[in-house]
């Protein structure tokens, strides 16, 4: 198959590459697990069905690189030094059984060899990552760094010194930024090495990840989207290219791709991790978080981002009161039964672990209307400072025009959030955690969604992800945890865990417990 490759607009030259895509491996079989039946209040045994994975031709292009590829890029191909988990990599670098340079060489070589399967990366930091790994090895505190030598990818919408911050858009500034974002500084201080920047749809507004240069496919079935807007991050982790990736979450844009790609992802609550995204982080609706192949890796990375070492501890929690809420926010949203079963499976595993689990209904009220209005209005605020707004995609221009209308009519009011939060606070007087499906259906097809109209994009996103935005509206923590595979589509299914402010540790500890009782295949490779 011939793959025409076009570099992103950050100064790199066009290239042309030919190659053959190979079929992905089939997911590993999971044993039967206990299923919680809220109608019968009993546990029954159900098998999680796996199906073969298919690959289809998708649009592909080469990510920008900070230098041409050399012979050393291929040296470590096939080595497993950086498949993770990140905790093992860091332990090896700390005790001297690995070096940061070895890890980075293996990681960069793997990304170069495999990234076109999914188009997860927009920039590969080949030479810069090598230099940073060599510098890391000279640090006097290497033996105590929590992320010593761990290769990490950063979503291409926050600042990494010396790199562009394109946010998936030709309308943004093409010049490199001078300083790191706060979370990047914390990752570097902890010993992480930034190996690349991951693909993001324009301005992070959309629930699928594609740009004029590339379509990011799902590693388990590249005919399907990796989700968005942290789709590149999730695809990079699920494909085994990096053990941990940074992402951020505005309406579920970290949890959505985590669920699509079968990795663990967590969005912390407001003020836990520095946000500093766009003009005002969508008035506090966007948070920086992490995606990883294991809960332990995600907890470690989040503890660094939050400057809270306690978050890295994932011992089992005490007995929790858990609500299982599988009904969608509105009746006109249809929920795929296999996604409903993902939530029920998580609930059954939690019940088997000794937690009190009962069926319940979340008090959504009119929350989604408030969310939709904010999505329109806050995107318009960010677009107002773009240097080249005439280069925006048509779907985005329509979106921003509607956002300006929402602003003029003053349809966004603080009281809307206050009502929703009051209902949720009352709900969580009875529960510590709520479990829902992460999504309502499989990921959409991997296609050039940026060529399609605004309404088509809105309908595609809202139909498969109605469960995630509530927690952005109120700024509370939420996570997505893999719970098997979709028998028809061959992509993962997942459950969402959410809790009140300050419950990040509870969600991580419960997730780790569920992972130990119901493990998943960490990566496609």
Q: What does the main sheet amount to? A: 12 strands, mixed
Gross geometry? globular
What are the segments in which pLDDT stays under 50 over at least 5 consecutive residues? 1-61, 66-79
Rg, please? 21 Å
Structural summary, described in words:
- There is one protein chain.
- The chain is of the alpha/beta class and about 525 residues long.
- It contains 15 helices and 18 strands.
- The chain has helices spanning about 85-95, 100-115, 125-135, 180-190, 230-240, 255-260, 280-285, 295-305, 335-350, 365-385, 395-410, 415-425, 455-465, 470-475, 505-515; strands at about 1-5, 15-20, 35, 40-45, 65, 120-125, 150-155, 195-200, 215-220, 220-225, 245-250, 265, 285-290, 320-325, 355-360, 435, 480-485, 490-500.
- A twelve-stranded mixed beta sheet has the order 5-6-8-7-11-13-12-17-18-16-14-15, sandwiched between helices. Strands 1-2 form a two-stranded antiparallel sheet. Strands 3-4 form a two-stranded antiparallel sheet.
- Strand 14, helix 9 and strand 15 form a beta-alpha-beta unit.
- Helix 8 packs antiparallel against helix 15.
- It is globular and about 55 Å long.
- The two termini are about 20 Å apart.
- Residues about 1-60 and about 65-80 have low confidence and may be disordered.
Short descriptors:
525 residues, 16% strand
Quick structural summary:
The protein contains 15 helices and 18 strands. It has helices at residues 86-95, 100-114, 126-136, 182-189, 231-238, 255-261, 281-284, 295-305, 337-352, 367-383, 394-408, 414-427, 454-464, 470-474, 504-517; strands spanning 2-5, 15-18, 33-37, 42-46, 64-65, 121-124, 151-155, 193-198, 217-218, 221-225, 244-249, 264-267, 287-292, 321-324, 356-359, 433-437, 478-485, 492-498.
